[in-house]
């Protein structure tokens, strides 16, 4: 472990002093307002601060306009949460909306504009017809892909096929991701899916987009997650040990797959990760746990390789042998929360929940899914099929 | 004039080195991509930089999801503009989306995350049925107002009625705003409306929401505007004299009017302006020109008062006597671009265009509408009926 705890983003240290997530799932009886209240009040309580301490609110959300005809979510939730006169913003970047909200919050803290801010990721998806949700989600895709009738399962199936052809990745390798992440989810009280699943169950589940079956796909979910960030040393040292954000990096690529040089990597992930390791002055070997964007099982394989955890083509073999699972040292633990696959994927909430999970892990407060002695964690959030990628590195 | 050119936001100076706007209007033959290309390439050319110099793109837009089913606009436009690997975000806050994008860009520059960034405000409204646009715009309102069938003209008409009752403001006072701003628009080659209008024309135009007539209302518009910001002193001193952003402040209030203590002021505007004057270490008397959010004529009266240009109830009398018009010293010139009313109001573009106008004015490059000797300008952008307000102060 070569982590230098003094390393910080240029200019000023950003501490996470509050973190909270709802249980993800089909939350039929809860409104977006109630989801937001639960997590933001939870994160403020965790931080020991009051609404009047919040200078700005950064909301990560994708679908409220297309599905709920409600925009202006910054002011909407600032009012709901009693942040009178605070600045407020909605930040959108498809499935990466939550971590893009966090990135802008980090910048705002370092800039000195605000001392303490809240980040809220929230999405309510199950109130709408699945076909409407699928159509709305394609709002993140390229015009060509939308015109061709592509869906995200179909696009990730193409990535899976190419990976199989190029590296001999098998159907079972993909399924191993689902088995691992559902096992982790079974240990997480906030997860949408509570039971471990077998490889046989994945292989025998309904076909969605060949080679991906239902259990290769992350679910439609409702949920919210929130963080409180501060530059205030008094707040940051009050109670619990604060967690530092030591890198926050964003990169983009073409919206559509057809415009990419390679279909065996997500370039934006590689780019964001390379920059993040450099800013944090550490290497992937220093990371104890990773929450990565496994919207489909193939996405976890790609991310393991693009984040540099393994060489290209090597992730499948390791996964097959049980690596990246809790309690299977020496490998980094990947998606201890259960990931998008097992914990659920309420679009705008996902990127924030990943960081909430890392905060809990670095505090040693993750219960049955605790990664032993975790000191450094990495969160990786993707929009579309890799058009946006965001990497945060946190340290205690 | 007590402006101190050394004053800057905490930590670092933010310079605008490129600015560009399309002509606003009904642009039937132009796509959002083409609008974005025109202004971002224009702003980069103005700044003398290349796409590879851009570290991040901040897109202000409200309606692309609800009207165009396209989200993920950050990556969408980053690809279109050739910003390979740059960070990219969509920032939304209803009609204040453009200036909220600028605010987050300012924070990003000061934080040191990026050296040079682009801000793009863009909206394409005329491709859609007017009733769909009106419905989508109410996505910025409160649930109560939407359920009650309110429209923004109707809500601003309530504000106008209360102002008339409280301060004796007349129908003619409102109309004077339209007459002034259309006069200014007639001098602006980028404006949607090219001809001056008479008070009689305003009074005799179709009723929209009593007391507001058609010519009290800003139009449905297409358009885009872009800025290039930098912290890089080499870039900022290369060619043209750079313009400094010396304050960037955001405040929020309740979404709905029913939750407000007062209907004769927009509290968020007062709050954002008070903070901006303090950060810039100047008073409203130091401002040479203001671009303010005149989505309806009553909005200009409220803003003049809430920004502290006049006392409550005094703006109408001054307007009636021709104050705030070009060439009518000693008063500050208000909306020399023609404002939302005369220049047009493509939602997400408006807040950025206001700042483009101020940049042109402070450079002395505003042609027939030049405010003589302008050194300090203020931009004021509102979301909804004042749920979000943003104030930027710029100085040369």
Structural class of chain A: alpha/beta
CATH class of the largest domain in chain A: Alpha Beta
Q: First CA to last CA of chain A: what distance?
A: 13 Å
Strand content of chain A: 15-25%
> Tell me, what's the shape of chain A?
globular
What is the residue-mean pLDDT of chain A, rounded to a whole number? 94
Molecular structure report:
Helices cover 38% and strands 18% of the residues of chain A. In chain A, the strands form two sheets. A ten-stranded mixed sheet of chain A has the order 3-2-4-7-1-8-12-11-9-10, with helices on both faces. The first copy, chain A, has a two-stranded antiparallel ribbon with strand order 5-6. In chain A, a hairpin with a 2-residue loop joins strand 5 and strand 6 (212-213). With 396 residues, chain A is α/β, with parallel strands linked by helices. The first copy, chain A, is built from 15 helices and twelve strands. At the A-B interface, helix 3, strand 3, helix 4, strand 8 and helix 11 of A face helix 3, strand 3, helix 4, strand 8 and helix 11 of B. Strand 3 of chain A pairs antiparallel with strand 3 of chain B, so a sheet runs across the interface.
Observed structural traits:
2 domains; Peroxisomal Thiolase, Chain A, domain 1; 10-stranded mixed sheet; alpha/beta; disordered N terminus; homodimer; 396 residues; 15 helices; globular; two-stranded antiparallel ribbon
């Amino acid at each position: 472990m070569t982590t230098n705890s003094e390393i910080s983003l240029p200019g000023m240290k950003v501490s996470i002093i509050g973190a909270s997530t709802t249980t993800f799932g089909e939350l039929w009886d809860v409104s977006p307002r109630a989801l937001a209240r639960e997590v933001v009040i939870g994160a403020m309580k965790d931080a020991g601060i009051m609404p009047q301490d919040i200078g700005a609110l950064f909301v990560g959300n994708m679908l409220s306009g297309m599905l709920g005809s409600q925009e202006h979510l910054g002011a909407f939730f600032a009012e709901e949460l009693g942040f009178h006169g605070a600045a407020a913003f909605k930040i959108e970047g498809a499935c990466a909306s939550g971590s893009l909200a966090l990135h802008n919050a980090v910048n705002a803290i370092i800039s000195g504009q605000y001392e303490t801010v809240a980040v809220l990721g929230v999405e309510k998806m199950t109130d709408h017809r699945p076909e409407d949700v699928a159509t709305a989600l394609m709002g993140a895709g390229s015009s060509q892909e939308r015109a061709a009738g592509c869906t995200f399962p179909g696009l990730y199936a193409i990535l899976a096929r190419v990976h199989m052809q190029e590296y001999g990745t098998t159907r079972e390798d993909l399924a191993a991701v689902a088995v691992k992440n559902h096992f982790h989810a079974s240990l997480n009280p906030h997860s949408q899916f509570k039971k471990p699943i077998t490889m046989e169950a994945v292989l025998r589940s309904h076909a969605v987009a060949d080679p991906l079956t239902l259990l290769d796909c992350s679910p439609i979910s409702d949920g919210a997650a929130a963080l409180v960030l501060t530059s205030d040393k008094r707040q940051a040292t009050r109670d619990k040990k604060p967690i530092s954000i030591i890198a926050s990096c964003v990169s983009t690529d073409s919206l559509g797959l057809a415009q990419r040089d390679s279909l065996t990597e997500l370039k934006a992930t590689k780019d964001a990760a390379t920059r993040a390791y450099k800013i944090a002055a550490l290497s992937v070997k220093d990371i104890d746990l990773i929450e990565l964007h496994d919207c489909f099982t193939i996405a976890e394989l790609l991310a393991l390789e693009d984040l540099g955890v393994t060489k290209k083509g090597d992730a499948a073999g390791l996964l097959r042998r049980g690596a990246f699972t809790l309690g299977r040292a020496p490998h980094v633990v990947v998606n201890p929360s259960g990931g998008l696959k097992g914990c659920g994927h309420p679009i705008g909430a996902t990127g924030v929940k990943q960081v909430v999970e890392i905060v809990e892990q670095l505090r040693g407060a993750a219960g049955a899914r605790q990664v032993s002695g975790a000191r450094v964690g990495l969160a990786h959030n993707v929009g579309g099929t890799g058009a946006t990628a965001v990497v945060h590195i946190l340290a205690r």
